Amino acid sequence: MSMSNPGIPSSTEITEISFENVKKKQRVKSFTKGMLFLLPSIVLFGAFLFYPLFKTMYLSFFLTNARGETTVFVGLQNYIEMFTSPIFHQSMKSTFLFVLYTVPTTIIIALLLAVLANEKLKGIGFFRTIFSSTMGISVAAASVFWLYMFHPSIGFLNQILSLFGVESIGWLTDPKWALIAVAVTTIWMNLGFTFLVLLGGLQSIDSYLYESADIDGAGYFHKLRRITIPMLSPTLFFVITVTIINAFQTFGQIDILTQGGPQNSTNLIVYSIYREAFTNYQFGTASAQAIVLFIIILIMTIIQFKLGERKVHYQ
Amino acid sequence: MGYIELMDISKSYNKQRNVLNGIDLQIEKGEFFVLVGPSGSGKSTLLRMIAGLEEISGGTLKISEKIVNHLPPKDRNLSMVFQNYALYPHLTVEQNILFGLNAQKVDREIQQKRLEETAQMMGLNELLKRKPRELSGGQRQRVALARAVVSEAPLCLMDEPLSNLDAKLRANMRIEIRRLQKRLGLTMVYVTHDQVEAMTMGDRIMVLNDGIIQQVGEPIDLYNKPSNLFVATFIGSPKMNLGKAILEDSNLIIENVLTIPFEHLEMPKNLKSRNLVIGIRAEHMPYGDENQQVQNVEIVNVEHLGNETLISFEVGTELWTAKWLGQWLIQVGDKVPVHISVENMCFFDEDTGNLIQEATFTHKQEVVRR
Amino acid sequence: MTMPLSKKIVFYSLLIISALAVFAPALMAFVMSFMDNKDIMTGSLPKSLSFDNYLKAFEQFPLLKYLFNSLIVSVVITIGQLILSSLAAYAFVFLEFKGRDILFFLFIATMMVPFEASIIPNFHIIRDLNWIDQYPGLTVPFFATAFGTFLLRQNFKQIPKELREASQIVGMGDFKFYLKVVLPVAKTSLVTLGAYGFLTSWNMYLWPLLSTTNDTVRTVQIGLKQLQTQEQLNDWGVIMSGAIIVIIPTLILLFLGQKQLQKGLTEGAIK
User: Fold this and answer.
1) What residues in chain B have their Cβ under 8 A from chain C's Cβ atoms?
2) Which positions fall inside the ABC transporter domain (chain B) (predicted)?
3) Beta-sheet pairing, B187-192 with B32-36
4) Residues 6+ apart with CB under 8 A from B269
């Protein structure tokens, strides 16, 4: 407070006012800067995600021509038809059955593999690579591999069966088996990714937990149940939701293996949307189905965020 | 008029309680100024406001007579050294040192010249091609300093630059930074939570607590005349011994246990009939000999430091420490005579915590001025 | 800690059995790709191994063209994703501005919209832009990714704020700091995201199926489907050789970057 000069206060007042302006300018500048960094992503999300989503909702209330232009507003008619259509019922039933077949099996097998591959043994890196390899195999290639495996006469599976004198199975042509065959292919394909994430989760568990358990003289399975599984729960949870979401989005394996058949038994929701839209050109009803898919995935994601949050804090 | 002037500076986040309040301060050109305080006192925030990294909520900041409140850091002509050194991990020592000059598009030749000078001065010649992760803590610290030096900015801000070093290295770097600052004539604003650093390095010190200035002054003044109880306990090690006291007749009664007569001293009027806290430094309680007024106390702890001995004893609920020169072979439980004299005491108001009267004795003996 | 031998044997046999089981379909395909069609049809063990199937696959199908297309598409998507998500992640970590939290929520929201649910209008958009059978149609819709942004954001957050502040003191702007400091420092996570992006774009199926009608930009995945459906004689050797060619690039990538990918996936997943 060295300044007792009466001339000073007025000048500080003036500067204070201009500070406000400067601050405002800076705020505008930092906002513009932030937007510039985010703009490319926002524009593309807008153009290829949010706009199409709303367009899908819009389309679901209309009939369209083959070019996808709306012709007649039908209100909820598309939805009503969809929910009363036995084909859609079949599709939903198959989809949920498919999720039921694939998700638990994928996770259990991947978890077993991850626990095995988490042992510190010589050459374990090789096994880890093998177990994760299916992540690098595309849907198309994997489906072709399994197309052979399921081949009615020369396929590996039926050859094994015939060794035991069991009659061969029409894996892809028998409505009883087709969904299972597609599920097996999917489980195999997802194994690599799931394994890799679970292995990462296992490796992030602090080794002192195991060391103190060793000092207490805990056995292998005791440690597995009391330390590994609980500590792994956040990863496990993540893997479960991702696998479920993936299962709902299944398309490629069906397109190559069964084309939705036999008798629509493998006509899962995405394939159903695809067929309705791009072979039947029924964009309105296809959009209604797409909205159903969206809502299912939305619920799954919200569950993941809500529950996952708590689990993450727990880490 | 100072080189840096802070006028009624305050800081608040989201219009909530102020982190800093009414800071008025002047820092002179070429001064080594230390901001010291416990963590959360707002000292780093203040430094970052001077740097321009933190918005100033209220008040005016001037650097070399220009108002700079609104200026970005680069227009304030200063350099800064961070606690974690902020070295770019992907760049070599040389590139790190030249980072700022490059950003300011300084001419190549000048860059090289300044680099050579700085590297020479900081003893970094051998390390120029290394990456930060290949350096020891002390070497990293040196690179961080070199970055400040090479900028040739007249003002240097340091935010706890030594707290990541071990004790021995820290003592060396204290001297080195201090010499560097004098040699280059830098104005230095140095933030630390370590009062030893503050005492040993600063031309002047500002003690900050809870966003409020406690005291500004030269190190020795802070030590001898702490303006309140906070400064009294914060500055100096071991910390100043405190005890509640009242005056009765011509005696001072401390913690209801010690009775110390005023003897021949005149009792100051302003001490009468109020609740006091007295403070006395450890080195002002020597072993009492026969012709002195002594208190017999029971030793509860002895620390041998080699050249001196710290003895602790209880005074009411307080644990006091005395520092005696030399080596004293005393056991815990021994009763020893201690000379405790009123003339070595600082008197504080118990309610406000403010200093009423400083120790009278120190004037006579301790400070040697040339 | 060393394991007793008996336990080791148990583990190794379990590992070997499961490795064989997991790898069997790919292994069989690999062997078949070198086998004579007669041997395959009769289910006998291979009498001779040759590259004939591969030669046939390349002769009868524009496989090289497909591979080239896939390479272009994957590289472009990968680069686009790296640029867009690193820019966005930078804004979320280093910039402070009004509306940032709302925009962050918007990015989270994108994870709730499956691409399949918006595929119909997307197809119409691409068609109206005349991007059918064009590289942009195959790549541009995939540049923006929330997963990539979150993964990089997680990584950028570990860069000390003081690095930015030190650069502010010497007057370096945000974009320059992003280019000169953030990108080089976060190199490994960029590589991870790049590998992941390449892997997923190489393996894309539904979208290339829709947005390509001829061989000009058709990717190798769709090429493989063509190979499989058009191979009249059901020549499994040729089909398998095509499939093997398709998976080789991604398998190599996976083998090289398995550790990195694993770390990146865990980080991106569990923030």
Assistant:
1) 51-53, 72-75, 78-80, 82-86, 88-90, 99-101, 103-104, 147, 151
2) 4-235
3) parallel
4) none
Q: Nearest CA to CA, how far is B70 from chain A (Å)?
A: 6
Domain that holds residue C143: 60-269
| Interface predicted TM-score of the whole assembly (ipTM), two decimals | 0.89
Contact: C222, A270; criterion CB under 8 Å: no
pLDDT at B266: 66
CA distance C159 to chain B (A): 10
Chain A residue nearest residue C137, CA to CA: A48
Residues above pLDDT 90, as percent of chain B: 61
Give me the CATH number covering residue C225: 1.10.3720.10
Per-residue pLDDT tens for A17-65? 677 788 888 889 889 999 999 999 999 999 999 999 999 999 999 998 8
With beta carbons less than 8 A apart as the criterion, state whether A170 and A177 touch.
Answer: yes
CA-based nearest residue to B225, from B41, B342, B82, B358: B358
Crossing angle of helices A175-203 and A124-132, rounded to 10°: 140
Q: Nearest CA to CA, how far is B190 from chain C (Å)?
A: 16
DSSP secondary structure code for residue B213 in this structure: E
Give yes or no for residue B271 having a pLDDT over 80: no
Q: Residue written as tokens 């004293």?
A: B328
Average pLDDT, chain C: 89
Q: Given B82, B89, B104, which is nearest C166 (Cβ)?
A: B82
Strand partners, B79: B156
Residue B7 to residue A3, Cβ atoms within 8 A:
yes
Contact B82 C170 (CB under 8 A): no
B226 dihedral zone (left: phi>0; alpha: psi -120 to 50; beta) = beta
Rounded Cα gap, residues A27 and A36, in angstroms: 14
Residue listed under structure tokens 């007057």 = C171
Residues B321 and B349 in one domain: yes
Whose tokens are 């991604």? That residue is C250
Please indicate, yes or no, whether residues B131 and B235 belong to a single structural domain of this protein: no
**Rounded Cα distance, C33 and B61, in Å:** 77
Q: Which residues contact C11 (CB under 8 A, 6 or more apart)?
A: A116, A119, A121, C3
B198 and B88 co-located in one domain: yes
Same domain, residue pair B220 and B348:
no
Residue C115 maps to a domain: yes
- CATH code: domain of residue B335: 2.40.50.140
Residues facing A137 on adjacent strands:
none
Question: Chain B contacts of A1, Cβ < 8 Å?
Answer: 7, 24
Interchain CB contacts (distance < 8 Å): A and B: 16
Largest CA distance in chain C: 76
The answer to whether residue A6 scores a pLDDT higher than 80 is no
| Partner-chain contact C43 A154, CB within 8 Å | yes
Q: Are residues B197 and B290 in the same domain?
A: no
C45 falls within a domain: no
A291 touches chain C (CB under 8 A): yes
Residue-level pLDDT at B263: 66
Judging contacts by C-beta atoms under 8 Å, the chain C residues touching residue B83 are 162
Asked if B26 contacts B206 with a C-beta cutoff of 8 angstroms, the reply is: no
**Residues A275-286 pLDDT 10s:** 999 999 999 999
Same domain for B94 and B225: yes
The residue in chain A having the minimum alpha-carbon distance to the alpha carbon of residue C148 is A41
Structural domain including B240 reads 230-365
Q: DSSP for B84-127?
A: TTT--TTS-HHHHHHHHHHHTT--HHHHHHHHHHHHHHHT-GGG
Neighbours of chain A (3+ CB pairs under 8 A): B, C
Evaluate whether residue B370 is within a structural domain.
Answer: no
Within 8 A of C40 by CB-CB distance, chain A residues are 154
Examine the domain organization and report whether B133 and B203 are in the same domain. Answer: yes
Does residue B225 sit in the same domain as residue B278? no
